[in-house]
Amino acid sequence: MTRLLVVTAVAAEADAVRAGLDQTCAPTTSDASDGAIVVEAVGVGPAAAAAGTARLLSAGRYRAVLSAGIAGGFPGRTEVGAIVIGSRSIAADLGAETPEGFHPIEELGFGTSVLEADADLLAVLIAALPDAAVGDILTLSTVTGTTTTATRLAERHLDAVAEAMEGYGVATAAAAAGVPFAEIRTISNPVGPRDRAAWRLADAFAALTEAGRAIRAIG
């Protein structure tokens, strides 16, 4: 039986997705639709995400991989509490800093910082979540904490709706395994100055559970 793999960074995100799948207990695998859905937390950041996803893909047969979790949203493009679907996962800090500005890895001739979501999986997610914002989701090893950085990223990535820390890593592992990939996030805070007191984590986790219901429908 081939399964759908949902990868999160931390256990709280995995629990929120499982709640939408009606997986309220500890097991990470649940029968759903025509197969099974496996939800696993693999760690924070692109390296942990890539390594953890690769380990899981090597240990089982999966028909698709979703990177899921909470994220920061770019003001004016998405709202706190919203669900966003990534059309592309972009390693926004993979490249070189120069006096003339940032140069992505493509300009250095060492690969790509952009990985496309699988078109069929993307279409299914959009149909299941018609109110979700769709756009690029940036992957960064350092979370944005200033207006200057937020503005620079927004100007460099005009289609970016959110930033997180794992999507590109999960996408890299999926691409290496030849498995379709997509990314889905829920917004807990605006991208910019860090104000933990203003973060709406409860709203983001509730939206992640809602996304889990949609994932169950496509599982």
CATH architecture: 3-Layer(aba) Sandwich
Number of domains: 1
Strand portion: 25-35%
CATH class: Alpha Beta
Largest sheet: 5 strands, mixed, barrel
The whole-angstrom Rg is: 16 Å
Helix content: 25-40%
Structural class: alpha/beta
Low-confidence stretches: 24-35
Q: In CATH terms, what is the fold-level topology?
A: Rossmann fold
Number of helices: 7
- For the secondary structure, the number of strands is 11
The geometry reads as: globular
Order of helices and strands: EHEEHEEEEHEHEHEHEH
Main sheet strand line-up: 4-10-9-5-11
Output the CATH homologous superfamily. Answer: Nucleoside phosphorylase domain
Mean pLDDT: 90
Instruction: Tell me the distance between the termini.
Output: 12 Å
Task: Write a structural description.
With 219 residues, the protein is α/β, with parallel strands linked by helices. It has a single domain, classed as Rossmann fold (3-Layer(aba) Sandwich). It is 35% helix and 32% strand. It has seven helices and eleven strands. It has helices at residues 11-20, 46-59, 105-108, 119-128, 147-156, 167-177, 201-218; strands at 3-8, 29-32, 35-41, 62-73, 83-91, 95-98, 101-104, 114-116, 133-139, 160-164, 181-190. The strands form two sheets. Strands 4-10-9-5-11 form a five-stranded mixed barrel, surrounded by four helices. It has a two-stranded antiparallel ribbon with strand order 6-7. β9 (133-139), α5 (147-156) and β10 (160-164) form a beta-alpha-beta unit. α1 (11-20) packs across α7 and α2 runs parallel beside α6 (167-177). It is globular and about 50 Å long. The protein starts with a strand and ends with a helix. The model is unreliable at 24-35 (pLDDT under 50).
